[in-house]
Amino acid sequence: MEHLGKEHILIRPEDYDKNFSTLNLGPTHPATHGIFQNILTMNGETIVDAEQTIGYIHRAFEKLAERRAFYQITTLTDRMNYCSSPINNIGWQMTVEKLLGVETSKRIDYMRIIIMELARISDHLICNSVIGVDSGAMTGFIYLFQEREKIYEIYEEICGARLTTNLGRIGGFERDLSPLAIKKIREFIAHLPKVIRQFEKLLLRNRIFMDRTINVGGISAERALNYGFTGPCLRAAGVDYDVRVMNHYSSYNDFDLTIPVGTNGDTYDRFCVRQEEIWQSIKLVKNALENLPEGSYHMDVPEFYLPPKEEVYSKMESLIWHFKIVMGEVDVPVGEVYHSVEGGNGELGFYLVSDGGRTPFRLHFRRPCFIYYQAFPEMIKGSFLSDAILTMSSMNVIAGELDA
Amino acid sequence: MELQEIQKILLGKFPDDILSFDESSDILTLTVRKSRILDLIQYLKDDLGYLFLTDLCGIHYPDQELQLGVVYHLHNLLKNTRIRVKTFTSVEAPEIDSLTGIFSAANWMERETYDFFGVIFSNHPNLIRILNVEYLDYYPLRKEYPLEDQTRTDKDDRFFGR
């Protein structure tokens, strides 16, 4: 297509005498943490305009999902926001449960809260430590990555995988939290505050860090709402919208949760909001673990929840169900649902249209980064190139989620 | 505001253009004629407080007369109510007014819908493909392009390890 954004990439004729230059930032630039291309028009070191190109790791998940049975789509959601895949997994499972009308027990809800909050912690740890790296403070990054490693060990104990977790099943969990997993979570939660305090001492009131981040990449609350911002980026701009509080999925209303908000919507505010959310998540995990009720770790949904393997080999009924589930021969209600969860980056929505077949008729993922990353040129216009890098890392744009 | 009330207000305002209401769904769903979609969304935003465009996506029903649909999810953040607006268009003339004048967020979402379904959003500032390559000459999420049959045997897969 010859009209592909020519007027956006090239310097406009009226600017010919202004000594502007074009700079190609990306697609694979070490400072952008992922495959993002930005073609910047620069005036000296100041950004005049930016043209974004995305889609470098597009994998057509929405099309693939139209060929897969519901339980097989969980693995697709892993690969969206891979910094917090359990949230995506559980969000998808809750969407299917909403379509099927399955009510989950408190135990499952609390287990989900524990895992989703751990995932949120790991997401925010990465994002905030990377803001540190991009502003020149490598130390915090190394400290926090050690903690993220512990979260991954917990995932490993719960589901066997570390990054692309495929955690949980429709109707609950594949297995119960083992005593070792609970021990690991307890140890992690007891140890994390010390590390976070150390990290905050390193950066939060650090003059250099504050000079680099305050008033960098700011956006007003009104513009942020208009641009469809959600999650920490919206809250940093001063709007207290959090899906966990607004919609109370998975029994979040049983717990006390404070929504931190910023005022300027700049990089420093986004950093602070994420930092406070880590504290809130620690509290949530602690409370959920203390109040974890006894009971089964999965609901009774024989059409979707695989029977135990030993029963498959010894009982006729279980064998039939196993076969039906794996071949996708179960009946699904006709209808459409929209369900959203608070992902690491904001409202992660699933719009599922079912025509009663074994696969979704249409599945659309509302990916928070995809929607708010389009505000990036507006946020960096007039700032320095080094500030643009910081703005991007503080928006926590994840290539997998952006391109789906 | 109760859902019935919203329904009554909207029916009073757009009596001929709202084709159907669906309350059985999880969110209040309505279908509107595509010529009035811009007015309806503007009205929802300005007068009923649906300030936030949560989602915009396309859908393709090959068996309908108007095959291509666009589904909008709007959210009233103050009252925490959501509304789903659908509008349909034919494949031959897939033009629908762009929402970019109302919501900046619609820009990329409409580009995505164009990219996958070929819906042309009139007055969009930069309607080009976003996730697929520019030279793709079809709209991949339409139902006439099924995924490859997984049982086919006529392909030489030696090099792809399948």
Describe what this molecule looks like in 3D.
The complex is a heterodimer of chains A (about 400) and B (about 160). Chain A is mainly alpha-helical and about 400 residues long. Among the domains of chain A are: about 50 residues, no CATH class; about 220 residues, Cytochrome-c3 Hydrogenase, chain B, CATH 1.10.645.10. Helix content of chain A is about 50%, strand content about 10%. Chain A is built from 18 helices and six strands. In chain A, a hairpin with a 7-residue loop joins strand 5 and strand 6. In chain A, helix 5 runs antiparallel to helix 12 and helix 12 runs parallel beside helix 17. Chain A is globular. The two termini of chain A are about 25 Å apart. Chain B has a domain of about 90 residues: Beta Polymerase, domain 2 (2-Layer Sandwich), CATH 3.30.460. In chain B, the strands form two sheets. Chain B has a five-stranded mixed β-sheet with strand order 1-2-5-4-3, covered by helices on one side. A two-stranded parallel sheet of chain B has the order 6-7. The mean pLDDT of chain B is about 90. Classes of the chains: A mainly alpha (about 400), B alpha/beta (about 160). Chains A and B meet through helix 2, helix 9, strand 4, strand 5 and strand 6 of A and strand 3 and helix 3 of B.
Largest interface: A-B, 45 and 39 residues
Q: Tell me what portion of residues of chain A adopts beta-strand conformation.
A: 5-15%
The backbone outline of chain B, from C-alpha atoms, is elongated
> According to CATH, what is the topology of the domain at 3-91 in chain B?
Beta Polymerase, domain 2
User: On the 0-100 scale, what is the average pLDDT of chain A?
Assistant: 90
Reading side by side through the largest sheet of chain B, how are the strands ordered?
1-2-5-4-3
Q: What spatial order of strands do you see in the largest sheet of chain A?
A: 1-2-3
Q: Over the alpha carbons, how many angstroms does the gyration radius of chain B reach? A: 18 Å
Tally of individual helices of chain A = 18
Mean of residue pLDDT values of chain B? 89
β-strand number of chain A: 6
Question: What are the low-pLDDT stretches of chain A, counting only 5+ consecutive residues below 50?
Answer: 1-6
